[in-house]
Specification:
By secondary structure, the chain is mainly alpha-helical. It is built from 3 helices and 3 strands, in the order βββααα.
Amino acid sequence: MFVKRDPEGVILDVSVEPLPGYQAGGQGESDELQGWLEKRRALDSLQSLQHSDRDLVRVIEDLVDVLLQRGVIRITDLPEAAINKLNSRSQARAHLGGLSNLIDQEERDNLV
């Protein structure tokens, strides 16, 4: 393993290949490396959950919209804070609606 450290000696990154600024890890570093790798895995899992949370928020918003449209629930059945958040997000999406073609085109351009 090759390790990149900050000036205080704290591990910043680990690589299986020798890269510029990385030094071969020594025998006594195995516990430190293991701790860093476990922390890195936890951070990666947290990032994955955060990304999933953003996607799930949209699913929940769409679900609430369907339930409202079908009359299963009324907007007044929701807590005031939820109503305010849903209204705020709905207004933000409506505002971006006029920009959606630009955003879609920019995303297509980035794929090319």
